[in-house]
Each structure stands twice: as structure tokens, then as C-alpha cells.
# Entry
Amino acid sequence: MNKYLFLFVFGLFTTFAFAQTARIKGVILDEFNQPVENVTVSVGNKGTVTNKNGFYSLDVPANQKVTVTFSHVTYKRVTVNVELRPNEDYEFNPVLNTNVEQIGAVVVMGSSKKRVEGITTIDPVVIRKIPGANPGIENIIKTLPGVYSNNELSTSYAVRGGNYDENLVYVNEIEVYRPFLIRSGQQEGLSFTNTEMVESVDFSAGGFQAKYGDKMSSVLDITYRNPTRFKASLDASLLGGSLTVEGVSKNQKWSNITGVRYRDNSLLVNSKETETNYRPSFADIQTLFTYNASSKWQWSFLGNVSQNKYHYQPLSRQTNFGTVSDPIALLVVYDGQEKDEYTTAFGAIKSVYQYNEKNKLKFIASTYHTQEQEYYDILAQYRLGEVDSNIGSDTFGDVVYSRGVGGQLTHARNDLDALIFNGEVKGFHQLNERSEVEWGIKYTYEDIRDRLVEWEVIDSAGFSLPRPDLEYQNDQPYNPYTGPLAPYFSSRATNYTTINRFSGYSQWNYRGKIGEHQYWLNAGVRGHFWQVETQDEKGNAQFVFSPRAQFAIKPNWDKDMLFRLSGGLYYQPPFYRELRDSSGVVNPNVKAQRSFHVVVSNDYSFKIWNRPFKLVSEAYYKKMTDVNVYTINNVRIRYKADNNAEAYAYGFDARLNGEFVPGTESWFSFGFLKTEENYNDRGYIARPTDQRLKFGLLFQDYMPNIPNVKLYLNLVYNTGLPGGSPSYADPYDYQLRLKDYRRADAGFSYVFKDQTLKSEHRWLKPFSEFALGVEIYNLFNNQNAITNTWVRDVYTKSQYGIPNYMTTRVFNIKLIARL
# Structure
């Protein structure tokens, strides 16, 4: 009886005690209305920390006056006295101001920690506003120094001499992948990242930490936001649109943000020289669910389903080239079509366990599945001739004499099915106020099934041409060719490939002082073990070990300067594309490419016109061995898969950004690069990504007398890439370069309402932002060539490279509405 009486009294007491609590919650912002992460919120011995959105929730005693303290090493302490009723929810949203006495600590703590890590942070608001033929994060990345691209329809970019496959992309710490079979930018459609869901974007062009994966060039680290209240946004234009909705449950435990997008590239593709029937359909849906199980546990699910349908039927084309005195034209009539489809499903579960203020674990599991097909049969019949340049002639501008005629028949039946699974555990441990340790272990399973069937037949004046790099005797048309008939190019292969990978990292962060000067140190290592197996052969088990380090120092000077040195060994174990050679055969023993990096940089913050500016300059050098050489045709990369080369890259990058116009961020970037490779000891030649000079400009402005009118300008200039030679060509025989790439996109927007511009119109009351604008792509109508089409004839024994131009000037209308 006493036992039951004790349990009754105990239960009554705990129920009463539980009822005598309340909750204080809110979002903590800084002076610039940005959320502040890792703010300690405490009452007595109880406490919590804010998440990436600045959100916190803390249970406090009810019916008594308590003091809640908000503390962060970068900001001044804030306290508030509250006395709440039982079960009451009280919302308090403090704004933290910078602690000028601790300004030095800003260098190594909070958002300024990224400064010492050499990470460029991009405001998501800028990403959503800046115009581009393929708007989004990649559109802005291409304006940064060291980043090169000469294809406005593609999301692909090269960084400091690397290629498109050497860039890491993370969303919420989960690695995402690009389609495998993409050949041209106009096939890509939508980038994986939905910019309307983005909270933060961090980018590093080299010398990054061991916690990032095994690639040699760059890291793009994207974080989606966790909603704190209901919001909705709509973007619509002649290129498509997106709808995003987000919200949070009443008890703040559940939140969701979902985005639906649709894109149609007809407006851009129809501006090219080739007249087509073009029926694209690019659509996707993404969702992020978050569940705060307790103050220590958080769960989230990120899902994405996308489908790209690319139906392309070319009709005709005319390209004029040559000189003013000797103009030449290529006229092509097409028959046939191309049907490509890419269906992708992606899902990831992430759990974060913060078991105390100084220790945290993360568990991540993701699955990526893609089914891709590339089918086409296209017959191109061409006529190459001289153009009548006599202005007074009745046939001015027409082809009056044919130098050659011929045809080209291309065929493909390519199918690919890829399944990739990742499982990962990460740990974060703060040892003391100055040092912390991070570690991670990851398993990856890749299962790729690939069928490659491609061939091309070229005819000139009724004669089937074999590849000119093959040995054969031919003096047509005087004597008939008696050898076997073969396609100009042919590739057939069926591959079933599985790859098992184990990788891990450990790194140590430390901050300290040398006299009055502050420094920050990061040292870490990565390990990667993998084995490739095909239907015919099991490859050798391989292992690589990658040490990396960063050192930054902020002198105690009047000028706000930071100096940084970083580098180490960066290995890139081969992905499926790197295992497959140009004929489609998989080599399971391809080794990891190795690159030794050294990056020296200076970060200088200052004020002009009493407005903030920053100049970041970096010099870098890369020495690469076991290089897997490749060719690039548009955005398609084909590897040798033999590791028989070495290479190097060096250069200098600079970026000046700040408020050139009060209240807006703009920047100017400059890059110099030289990269060469030596294949089989034949000597050094330019790599396919050797783009020597780069200038980028991103500019925002508004009319002082009419602040509702905004101007956005996105300008890129890159010197010509090596390329444009025939696909079969030996690069040692063809060191041609394409013309310089010049691109300017402009946007003009009338903002009816936003955070700074209020409106008294009743119909605008539900909206937090409403804007209507016009965008002009390729403002100056520059002709940029991505590749060359090569035509030849047996009579003149000549071969002509005709540029394949990208998009011309295009006008677009855009509507933005946000609740």
C-alpha cells in the first residue's frame, strides 16, 4: 500500500512540476537583420543554442521572475527579465549588436569564421535578382574570380584549370550529382539547387579543408533554410516559373519548405542560328521537412524528383563566316530528331544530436537514382559556298558558288541507369574556447548500368569519308576506294559497374595569439578506399591519404587585413565518367588523380565614401600527377582513362566587392590562369580549360529620384578556350582556340513593394515583395562560339571549321511576388 501511495504522490508531484513551466522562443538577428547561429540562451544552469536560422526555444520556470541571457562571443550580451504563466509561450526576438571591444574575435568566430577559411559567401537575395540565361547560383558563381564558363545555357563551370567533374556541390551537407549523358547546355534544363529555398551559399575555389570531399578544384556548400513562419513566393517569366511555400507548426516542432519549378528554353534556343522544332519540358519538385524532436535531437528529410524531356528537331541553318573580302556561308538542311529524357529521384535523411553545448553528432543517409536516355538520328545535308558581297547585286548575301557539298548522319541509342547510396556519420567536439575537433566516416555504393551505341557517317560529294587519322590510300575521285566501308566514328559498349567506397576525415581547428596578432589554424587528413568491379573484371583495391592545412593571421594593425596560407594533397578517385574511355570501355584500375595545392591570399576590408568594401586577392599553384586527360565538346567530357599525364596550373585572382551604390552589393573580379599538361612525355601543351584571362562584373543600382526602379548587370569576359578542333583530332596537332567569350545580361525591375520600399496600395497589402521587370540576355548581341562544325570535300581536299554560335540577344519578362 505504501508503494502505491508513493507512486501516486510522486506522479502528482511530477505532473504539478511539469505544469509549472513556460517557454520562451524567437529568432535572434544581428544589426543587418541576418540570423545569428550558436547564440547561447540560458536561464540559470539551463540553456540552449540557436540554429542556423537564429531560432531558439527554451523551457523556463513559471510563476517566478527569471533572467534570460543571450550571449555570443562576437556580440554584446543581452538580458531580459520575464515572469510567465504556466504553459505560456512567450516570443522574444532580440537584435544583437557587435561588441566593439571584442572586434578581434570576429575574425575567428561567427560568420567571419568563413573569412579565415577562404570561403566566399554569397547573399541568396543577390542570387535571386541577378539576370542570366540560366539564372541561379551557378549564374553568380561564374562571375567570381577563378571560375570559368563559356556556355550560358549550362550550369557547368571550371575552376582554376579543373574541369566540370572536379567540383563538389553540397546541399545541407549532402553531396549532389549532375546528369551523366548531358552533351550540350541546352539539354540541362534545371540546376539541382532551388534558389528560392536557399538560406546560405559558401564557395571555395581551392585550398579547402579536409571535411570536404575528394575533388581537386572547388566546393559549393549550399544550405536550405528552416522556416520560422508561413511564407510563399512566385516567380514567373517567359522561360518558366517557380512556386515555393513554407511554414511551421504551432508548436514549432515541424517545418516544411517545398518548391515546384518549370522551365522552357524555347525562347533561348530559338534565338540560335539553327531553325528548330523544339519541345522541352524541364520540371522538378523539392521538399525539406524538419522535425525538432527535442532541444537535443533534430531530424530532416530532403527530397527531389525531376524530369527533363528534351525533344529537338532541327530544320535548317545558315552560318556566315570568313572575311569581308572572302565571305563564306554554310547552308544546312536537316532531317530527323533527337529525344532525350532524364528522370532523377533523390532522397536524404539527416539527424543532428546535440548532446551538450560542446559536442554534436550528425547522421546522414542519401540515395540518388537517375535514368537517362539519349536517342537521336539526324541527317544534315550541307552546301558550302562563296557569298555574293556586291552590295548592288540582285543576289547580294546569297551563295553564288558552291565549294563543296556533303552530308552527315549521326545516330545514338544511349541508356544509363545509376543508383548511388551514401551513409555518413560526423562528429563536432569543442575541446575548449580555442580549439575544436571534427571527424567523419562515410560509405558510398555506386551501381551504374550503361549502354553506349553511337556512330557517325560523313559523305562528301557522294563519297563516304573514313576518319583522316586512320591510315588508308585514297586518291578519289580519280580512282575508286576499295577498302572496307566504315563509319567516320563508332562507339559501342555495354557496362555494368559497381563501386564500393569508404572515406573519412579528421581535422583540428585552433585559434590563438602571437603577441597582439591573432591567428587561426586548421589541420586535417582525409582517407579514401575504393574498388571497382565490372561484369568482366574486378579492379584493384586502392587507397589514398590526403593531408591538408590552413593558416590565417590577422595582424593588430589599424588596417583590417587578414593573410592566409593553405594547401595540401588533393586526390580525386575516379567516378564512372573517368573510368570510361572515349570508345566506351571501362578501365576498373584507373588511379586517383593527385594535385598538390598552395594558395596564398590577402583579405583587406576598408571603407570608401563611408561604405564597406573588401578586396580579396589570391595566388595559387597546382602540381598534378596521374592525370586522366580528356577532351571537351560543348559540355561533354571524354577521358583517356589511363593516368598517363602530368600537369600544372598557376594563376592570380582578385575580387573587389562592396557598396558602390549605397545599400547594394556589387563586385568586380579578375583572374589570370595558365594550365598545361604533358601526355606520355610528348611535351607540355595547353589543357582544354586553359582560359588565360577572366573579367567579371556584377552590379546593382537604382534611380535616386525613382528608388522603385532597379538595375542589375551581369557581365563576363573570358579569353578563348583551346578547342574547336575535330573530335578525333590529336591535341598535339591541333592547338586551336575559340574566340573570346563576351556576355552581358541586364535586368530592369520596378519594385512596387519590398522590405525597404513600402506601399499604401490596398492590393499590395498581402505581399512582402512585388516586382515586375524586363531582362535582356546578351545585351550587346555578341556571337560566342562553343564548338566548331567541321566540313570537308574530296575535290578541294579542304576542311572548314564553322563556329557553332550560342544564343543571340533575347528579351524576357519576369514577375516576382512574395507573401
Summary: Confidence is low (pLDDT under 50) at residues 1-19, 99-111. The longest strand covers residues 399-430. The CA atoms of residues 385 and 402 lie 4 Å apart.
